[in-house]
């Protein structure tokens, strides 16, 4: 693959790309999750929620 | 390189650093600001700081040079640093560390451990280990930066070392972790741009991605004729299974650093600088992409330098990278930049390397200093005073120690030993063996005892040190203690154990000791555990809405 020999190096190459993609996908899916309660309270209050 | 161009680039760079250092100094008023940035860091700053701290000149010059010798098998380290160092570290360690750190009001990693296990002794011991072992790591990073500056600017190594140390010292001492993280984010951005440019230029110069790899694969016979006896099979394939090179690549470089990254005090403290899980989630994306480029490029360009020196460069035709660089592993990448890249890029890369060195150094100085000031002086010894001042003095002391070591190290180690890469791997290995079992236990096992933490810590530390001084020949030969006591360079004689990294032996033993030690000693009081684990769910995934708020005070230590 891409001029690389054997299995181990091409596999390492592919895993680098795949693990980066995993980080990107995770980051995108959870971009707005996990904020602190003190951040959410004013927004709730602004919407009239309790 | 044009002196004018270089002066303009470096002056602009230093000016921006000065501005960021001033901003940090203005915003640092309390001990908490100095140690954990008031737990209010932006995710971009946090992620870039984490990545830039992790990726030093070691990873680029040291490990890039090592990759020029060992080949692209080192890409496995890139994979581990992304998957373990970012994905696993942030999601499975970072979230719990952040919440528990805030619950306990911990400001450093040793303090986190000490408060979790209610042991000032453990806090002091962890701080002492960091303060004793990290100067070596800081010294080799300083060496990497100093050597690069000396080579590019053709100035004396000692002078380069002094100037580099003074610049970093200024913003670390004055701005604390804010100074470290602001400058890290800026430096990380430069590193990212510099490494992308380096990769693109290298592939362009060597005929494209596949063509460049194929040319390197075509040099397989040269590699085997020179290093075949040690297990080399070519620069685009992995060393022969269980050969000397395989053991070095797998145990020291890939596992030593790839696993060791989980237990780095200077990285763990980053988790405690953000206010919620959302920042960590965002940092996963930024950190993953950054590490791919910052680490991966060096491991691709290093091996490809062989093609350049052997075929493309008239001055070194017929020589592989190691020979072209006079058998100095750490000189391969700087030489490649100087001879293969356009002059303007050498100026950019100079700043990239400065950034890599300075971003890691600043965190190391800060971590060592806070270990001395916060964990040993204030924590273990129980001394009180102006916390901000105490930590500033301690950071300054740590810097002076590292500088002294970096001045002396080249006298004891020959250039061909790849001291930068090995020094980094040694520190990562010691940290993994000493800290990882108790750190993992601290955040995942409510029933873990103080005795278990002590057993794992002591075993990991002692076995690592024993292996370094008496078995792992790379260090035991240079340290000469084994020779003085037993008349041999390594107790393992001529066996392959001499190249097996301390981590591979010390970490499993540390885990066993933690488990066995955990069967003994008093349990941690339930009330304290409830306090520690508030906001951390038992078995389900983290629930963002139930994240706890930071508390104002830590729980007093029992001993």
State the helix count of chain B. Answer: 23
Instruction: Count structural domains of chain B.
Output: 1
Work out the radius of gyration of chain B: 23 Å
Strand content of chain A: under 5%
pLDDT averaged residue by residue of chain A: 76
Number of strands of chain A: 0
What is the chain-wise order of helices and strands of chain B? HHHHHHHHHHHHHHHHHHHHHHH
Work out the largest interface and the residue count of each chain. Answer: A-B, 31 and 51 residues
Walkthrough of the structure:
The complex is a heterodimer of chains A (50) and B (559). Chain A is mostly helical and 50 residues long. Chain A has one domain (8-46). Chain A is built from two helices and no strands. Chain A has helices at 8-29, 37-46. The longest helix of chain A is centred in the middle third of the chain and has 22 residues, at 8-29. Chain A starts with 7 loop residues before the first helix and ends with a helix. Mean pLDDT of chain A is 76; it is low at 39-50. In chain B, α6 (109-116) runs antiparallel to α7. The longest helix of chain B is centred in the first third of the chain and has 49 residues, at 157-205. Chain B starts with a helix and ends in a 27-residue tail after the last helix. The model of chain B is unreliable at 540-559 (pLDDT under 50). Chain A binds chain B through residues 2-6, 8-9, 12-13, 15-17, 19-20, 22-24, 26-28, 30-40, and chain B through 71-73, 75-76, 78-79, 82-83, 86-87, 91, 95, 209-217, 220, 233-234, 236-238, 275-289, 291-292, 296, 542, 544-545, 547, 549.
